[in-house]
Amino acid sequence: MNLKKYSLFVVSVFVVTLYGCKSYPVRNIEHAPVPHSGQHHPTAHEVKRIILRAGSDLGWAMKPVRPGVIIGTLFVRSHMAKVRITYNRRSFSIHYMDSRNLKYDGHNIHSRYNGWVTNLERRINSMLAAL
């Protein structure tokens, strides 16, 4: 009976490990349209301000590096994700730059990274829509 319990334990640990370490293709956001209300299109400065605030609200360290480009870095426990956000008054994009402890292999990355990027995109969109 002990061998049966031990075997079940080993299989369970293996399954949990495989499930917890799933990796997926890196999610980049390409030219997401900036929402606008009626005739009012936000300025590039307003888009920049919203992106900086949205990222900061979610724990990202946001650093403008030049007009139209922001670098966002997120630290979660031992993990780090870095993205390049490009923007103008009509659209914004979020691209993978670098990571640590997220099992990036050149194409795939830990699923949490994609979740963090999706949350950032949603937060930016919701704040832009409220302008």
- Low-confidence residue ranges: 8-19
CATH superfamily annotation = Kinase associated domain 1, KA1
Annotated CATH architecture: 2-Layer Sandwich
State which percent range the strand residues make up.
25-35%
Average predicted local confidence, pLDDT: 88
Number of helices: 3
Query: How many strands in all?
Result: 7
Shape: elongated
Number of domains: 1
Distance between the termini: 65 Å
The class by helix and strand makeup works out as alpha+beta
Assign a percent range to the helix content: 25-40%
Return Rg in Å: 19 Å
| Order of strands, widest sheet | 2-6-5-4-3
CATH topology: TATA-Binding Protein
Q: How would you characterize the overall build of this protein?
A:
- The chain has a single domain, classed as TATA-Binding Protein.
- Strand 4 and strand 5 form a beta hairpin.
- The model is unreliable at 8-19 (pLDDT under 50).
- The chain has three helices and seven strands; from the N terminus they run H-E-E-H-E-E-E-E-E-H.
- The chain is 40% helix and 34% strand.
- It is α+β, with helices and mostly antiparallel strands and 131 residues long.
- The strands form two sheets. The chain has a five-stranded antiparallel beta sheet with strand order 2-6-5-4-3, with helices on one face.
- It is elongated, with a radius of gyration of 19 Å.
